[in-house]
Design brief:
Layout lengths: L1 H16 L2 H29 L2 E17 L2 E17 L3 H32 L4
Antiparallel strand pairs: 1-2
Keywords: Coiled coil
């Protein structure tokens, strides 16, 4: 839990360092990145013939905890990720892949105009 808090806080601090223009540009590239990931996932599913579902299981163990001026044994928890094969509709997966590829082409065509809009909205000073 503490590790997740530190990581989240660190990422928020780094994001706060971005200029408004950099944030605007990152949003544009974020859509493209997400579509590329969706395409890669669909292609992998079609190549395998099945999908993968990620399950998160708690993993409990005993460790040392510090409380005030005392060190004692306590129960801790980590989260363990497991991939489980799941059946998919191959025709639906092909349609999803085609749709994602078409959407990616649209996003890439619109990217330069969107970047120009970010530059106009947030000129560098």
């Amino acid at each position: 839990m503490y590790r997740a808090f530190v990581l989240t806080t660190g990422l928020l601090a780094l994001a706060a360092c971005d200029t408004p223009r950099e944030q605007c540009e990152a949003n544009i590239d974020g859509n493209i990145k997400a579509l590329k990931q969706a395409i890669a996932d669909s292609e992998a599913n079609l190549a395998r013939g099945y999908g993968l579902q990620t399950e998160i299981e708690p993993n409990f163990y005993y460790g040392l905890c510090v409380g005030g001026d005392r060190i004692e044994t306590c129960l801790k928890q980590d989260l363990k990720r497991k991939s489980k094969p799941v059946a998919i509709d191959l025709d639906e997966e092909r349609r999803k892949l085609a749709s994602a590829k078409a959407r990616l082409a649209q996003e890439e065509r619109a990217r330069s105009a969107a970047l120009a809009q970010c530059a106009a909205q947030y000129p560098e000073t």
